[in-house]
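ugh ok fine here u go
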Amino acid sequence: MKKLLFIAALAVATTASALAGNITVKGSDTLLILAQKWAEVYMGQHADTKIQVTGGGSGIGFAALQNQTTDLCDASRKAKPGEIANCIKAFSARPTEYKVAVDGLSVYVNTESPIKELSLAQLSDIFTGKAKNWKDVGGPDLPITLYSRENSSGTYEFFKEHVLKGQDFAASAQTMPGTAAIIQAVSKDKGGIGYGGAGYGAGAKHLLIKKDDNSPAIDPTEENVIKGTYPIWRYLYVYVNPALDKGEIGTYLNWIRSDEGQKIVKDVGYFPLPANLRSN
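structure:
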């Protein structure tokens, strides 16, 4: 009985903290710069609200959500069935899912690389290790260096599912802590290739991507991503315990999906939600 009372008191304290204007956000590194900018602008307009944003990966965010150590979970992929089940077990409710932005997952190479486009099949061959030299995909005689994300990353899981079709990454792939680190590595490596969110492109060049050999090579522009013609696109999400989706947290979630919040999405380098998916 004492344990139950303690848990109830903790839940009330957490809710009270959120209602008082202290919001914690944790999860996707892809969303990190956008989440930080949202927090910065919102706190500038609401002096009594404090928003703490940290990354770590989508999987880390879901773990924190189910452990009730974060108010909001940023994710660059949808929640897995097991993660939803753990949340239901932890706080007796399915977490509420909000789409908050659209991302064209970009493939980055060194700015001096002559490669301009690749097909999804070529990308799969590269990242599974079947193609080990750029000459294998129409480039120069130069070894390919793979830069990937850690397996707690939603971007890693999305790329593995949608580009590699569930195959494992090559053992030679170097694991990087975030998209920014991938961009930095590729910018210094003429044979390097990596992938990440569209908002991190400075320092490297992105490739045009073909769905197959008979398809046109598509640039990850806003129009192409929103229309779905660019073959590697996704929504970015925020998940929340529905019991906390009120007060300042509810206001904040509405704000990031408003016209003002979505303008920041575009300013950072991602793509705003279509109007029908935004808050009223």
